[in-house]
Structure to design on (82 residues):
């Protein structure tokens, strides 16, 4: 039985976050010990593809550090995380 047949609704994710949400993400991400695109998407209700783009941008800005990963999953941590 599919989700539609059960009456469950599909989660709608934001394509691009608002400016206030972007500022919140930037403030919280620098202290995060582990950040993945999937965790970012779930926490803030954005798409995984958007989270990947944000993490690449934050990596270029120096807000996160690349830890490990492969082509499917990249693991980052905030620069101030212990």
């Amino acid at each position: 039985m599919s989700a539609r047949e059960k009456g469950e609704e599909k989660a709608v994710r934001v394509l691009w976050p608002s400016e206030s949400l972007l500022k919140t993400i930037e403030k919280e991400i620098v202290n995060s010990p582990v950040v993945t695109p999937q965790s970012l998407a779930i926490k803030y209700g954005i798409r995984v593809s958007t989270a990947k783009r944000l993490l690449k941008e934050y990596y270029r800005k120096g807000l996160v550090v690349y830890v490990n990963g492969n082509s499917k999953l990249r693991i980052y941590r905030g620069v101030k995380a212990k």
